[in-house]
């Protein structure tokens, strides 16, 4: 049985979830892939995280080069977050012939071209399913099962925090400020919610979706973006009167002349549109292709295990590819 | 550039759709895969179909062995339908070292184990994405991107004809017989609708879903199945009073003791459940896994191009695997 060694950079929420799935679902993953694997090294300084996940201390390192430059690591999971040093570390891992899996949308949106090229030059893969929509396997669908399509439009509800806030404003009739406080208390919103409520997180995700669906790179900061801080109860009532819900929608479409348009803003979605049924912390990606027509993927856009599911799916894909080599 | 030769058995609705996508999206498929391909042989006697798709007559044969036993065919698309001779022909193709792609749910539900084993013995693939949910890439998600999960439940609206009829009964207040006639006139239901309205088509699909998600084979005829012919306007009104819609639901779940339960019958779905928003001819597959939690896939469950999209996705996956060999 082929054996794959995995190194994990960061045992935070997502890295920890990934570790737990690899441990708990080991039998089924081995049977399905015919490949054995082991997490042989983890970069982490937080002793509580190491203990919480029951990690053997001999696996833990505080030196990133023990993973990036190790001869015996096949796959590096980069689950640290932030553009740097994550991007440089992923590049180094790829240059050293290691496959990379990451949920780091900010780093990928900023440096996808460079990362992709480094992977190609080394004959390895960088896989990024967890960057958009958490556990929802939409990116893999775009690049694999739906790859026979010319895509004409992608639309999505790509941020759970803002979708939770808009859902509560609509369902419970509470204004933005009050719902935000409640969401923060429940852990659905960060203490500093700027990246979520201003659409910055969504812009990273739409940039990645466009790169994959349309093969065109638009930097996140170039996407016209309006967050949800200006949505009032009057807006929500007016939308309801028109048979609509307000959702923070990321949208990109190819025009007849081949030009690409994109925007992120609160939009009115008719109640009978499938995206109108995507509520609370759920996410969805709605894609139109010239063969498949309209298809939608729905699920949890965040969280340790859903996001870990996407990372483990990418690891499995790499294991199967390595087994063919 | 690696070159793959494709043979197609049957240029009917789905075979024809597949042929059209392979021709029309050729540039984008070549660029995405780095592999070239050609449809080098088609089994078909219907001259009108051959002309309608603009097929070069030199590609057409009436002898199936020109495809199954040809030394120069890498992938066989079996788009004839029916359990036999399709199953025997797929087995022969696999035994001869050819990859097989099929939308033939009846043949796959009857013979999945045999087909899978023949593929493994020959070191090739049988891919069946188009068997369930038309263009919706749910099977690939289960076996690939979500393969890190232990699945606990699958639920689906797996038949467009019955979903169209139930939607119209609910929306327009027309009884079953009238809606069926209208659906037949519009081409959404067959002249003999038995396989659809009695749930036989759905049973084939649920059998396949269970084989992939739970690695357990339940023959379609062993699945407790109730179709939609007994659904009355009173049932629909009573469901509405309870805040529900009636949908023909296929459901399978793993019990705590590891036992598998399954059934197909009209069920009441609460209006706030994502499956309640799946209307008309659309299909959806709703899956629960121990890592990803709940995820849903939505799209067109039938039709030449959506089903062709799934077949071409499978062809692309095989081309990428062959390119690694």
Automatic annotation (TrEMBL), chains A, B:
The UniProt entry, under InterPro entries, shows: Asp/hSer_DH_NAD-bd, HDH_cat, HDH_CS, HDH_short, NAD(P)-bd_dom_sf
Q: Where is the Homoserine dehydrogenase catalytic domain?
A: 137-316
Any one biological process term the GO annotation gives: methionine biosynthetic process
Q: Where does NADP(+) bind?
A: 10-15
Q: Which reaction does it catalyse?
A: L-homoserine + NADP(+) = L-aspartate 4-semialdehyde + NADPH + H(+)
Q: Which residues form the Aspartate/homoserine dehydrogenase NAD-binding domain?
A: 10-129
Q: Which UniProt keywords apply?
A: Amino-acid biosynthesis, Methionine biosynthesis, NADP, Oxidoreductase, Sodium, Threonine biosynthesis
Broad EC category:
oxidoreductase
Where on this chain does L-homoserine bind? 190
Where along this sequence does the record place binding of NADPH?
105
Pfam families registered for this protein in UniProt:
Homoserine_dh (PF00742), NAD_binding_3 (PF03447)
Instruction: Give the pathway listed in the UniProt entry for this protein.
Output: Amino-acid biosynthesis; L-threonine biosynthesis; L-threonine from L-aspartate: step 3/5; Amino-acid biosynthesis; L-methionine biosynthesis via de novo pathway; L-homoserine from L-aspartate: step 3/3
Cite the active-site annotation: 205
Instruction: Report the family membership.
Output: Belongs to the homoserine dehydrogenase family.
What is the name of this protein?
A: Homoserine dehydrogenase
Q: Which organism is it from?
A: Hornefia butyriciproducens
